[in-house]
Design a protein that fits this description.
Order of helices and strands of chain B: HHHHHHHHHHHHHHHH
Oligomer: heterodimer
Protein name (chain B): Permease
Largest sheet of chain B: none
Distance between the termini of chain B: 20 Å
Helix content of chain B: 55-70%
Number of domains of chain A: 1
Mean pLDDT of chain B: 83
Distance between the termini of chain A: 38 Å
Low-confidence stretches of chain A: none
Radius of gyration of chain B: 22 Å
Number of helices of chain A: 3
Order of helices and strands of chain A: HHH
Number of strands of chain B: 0
Shape of chain A: elongated
Helix content of chain A: over 70%
Number of helices of chain B: 16
Largest interface: A-B, 53 and 90 residues
Shape of chain B: globular
Mean pLDDT of chain A: 87
Membrane topology (chain B): Multi-pass membrane protein
Keywords (chain B): Cell membrane, Membrane, Transmembrane, Transmembrane helix
Family (chain B): Belongs to the UPF0718 family.
Pfam families (chain B): ArsP_1
Structural class of chain B: mainly alpha
Number of strands of chain A: 0
Number of domains of chain B: 1
Chain lengths: 65, 323
């Protein structure tokens, strides 16, 4: 019983620590997805052999799954 | 993630750009950056996106350097409206549509998208990650993991072996990494898990073979593994150099906020999770058909897909193969 309580309190601690940041993160993520969806990115990639890779890598960093 | 990359490729992006996008998108995102700052520390918050960018660039450049095939494909870009579908992007030039929606409308659409779709996609995984992190902190004895995963090349290789087949998203892997570090796993080994876990899994690799081919998939996997180990070793070195004990500064970010705000955030997050969690449970306990549908072909694009096909003429319906 003790150990179950400890488990619950650990999970509660993690939720407390992360929820506020999570809320902010998914808000920004939504905005980014509206403004920067894969098709918009494709538009910017161009045909370059190397520049297209750098841009694709760069755009992928902030985009959520 | 994979459907988006498949459509990038289909629409004319080269293989290198596609694999770069396929590395950096799952390995990092604003949501996972935020939660890394909350549960880990500032150093990991910076290193994670940097490592993702460098890995993505290395994978893409290696691909285009080694296996470049010149093709003249005019990219087909979906210019349809992302906010309320007010135009399908065919007779709607950018100049005209740019003023169509106010900033407020865009922000609202983005927020709605974030709290419904983005969170809908990751909510269940997030709770699974938090639950697993709780289990690790509660049940795994201190110093058990330290002997195998306390740092060095060996720890990185063990983490690679664990992370490559595993399916986990960047956000859900963060609390697990925090719990592992708390139990004596070196931050570098945890970073390997954070990088490789989201970037690869058994299903995505088999799909990648279809999109990019065997040779390119092998290159993709090799670059991801090498970069992850490299950054893992660098991070361990940085912690030693800075003289920081990683356990001591975990999860300090949320102390900036008053407890009331934290409680409110938990409540809001749980409320937002009701819908995705119930629909997940329905899928889990209901008919088990959903899993087999995926195998065939990719839908065009989630945003450009089914809804717009209804509006188009018969001819265009054929082009838009979203049957």
């Amino acid at each position: 019983m003790d150990i179950v309580l400890r488990l619950i309190s650990e999970i509660w601690e993690i939720l407390l620590d992360s929820s506020l940041f999570m809320l902010g993160g998914i808000g920004v993520a939504g905005m980014l997805k509206i403004m920067l969806d894969p098709d918009t990115i494709l538009n910017h990639l161009g045909k370059g052999r190397y520049m297209s890779v750098v841009k694709a890598a760069f755009f992928g960093v902030p985009l959520p799954l | 993630m994979l459907p988006a990359a498949a459509s990038l490729r289909k629409q004319g992006a080269n293989k290198g750009a596609t694999s770069a996008f396929l590395v950096s998108t799952p390995e990092s995102g604003v949501d996972s950056i935020a939660i890394t700052y909350a549960l880990l520390d500032p150093m990991m918050t910076v290193i994670r996106p940097v490592a993702a960018f460098v890995t993505a660039m290395t994978a893409g450049l290696a691909e285009n350097l080694l296996f470049w095939e010149k093709k003249e494909v005019q990219p087909v870009v979906d210019r349809s409206c992302k906010i309320d579908n007010c135009c399908d992007g065919i007779d709607c030039p950018d100049e005209l549509h740019r003023r169509h929606h106010s900033l407020w409308e865009k922000i609202r659409a983005g927020m709605r998208y974030g709290y419904r779709e983005v969170w809908g996609d990751i909510a269940v995984w997030f709770f699974a990650g938090v639950g697993l992190a709780g289990l690790i902190t509660t049940f795994i004895p201190q110093e058990l993991l330290e002997t195998f995963l306390g740092g060095g090349f060996g720890s990185m290789v063990i983490m690679l072996a664990a992370g490559i087949p595993l399916y986990i998203c960047a956000t859900a892997s963060t609390p697990i990494a925090a719990a592992l570090i708390l139990k004596g796993v070196s931050p570098g080994a945890a970073l390997v898990f954070l990088l490789v876990g989201p970037a690869t899994n058994l299903t995505s690799l088999s799909v990648l073979v279809k999109i990019l081919g065997k040779r390119s998939t092998a290159l993709y996997l090799t670059v991801i593994a090498l970069c992850a180990v490299f950054f893992g070793l660098v991070v361990d070195y940085l912690y030693v150099l800075a003289g920081i004990s990683p356990q001591a500064i975990l999860g300090e970010a949320s102390d900036l906020f008053p407890p009331v705000m934290k409680y409110a955030a938990v409540v809001i997050l749980l409320l937002l999770s009701i819908r995705p969690v119930t629909s997940f449970c329905k899928k889990l306990f209901g008919k088990k058909q959903a899993q087999t549908v995926f195998v065939s072909d990719f839908p065009q694009m989630p945003s450009a897909g089914s809804s717009k096909c209804e509006l188009k003429s018969e001819e265009e319906k054929k082009k838009c193969d979203c049957s």
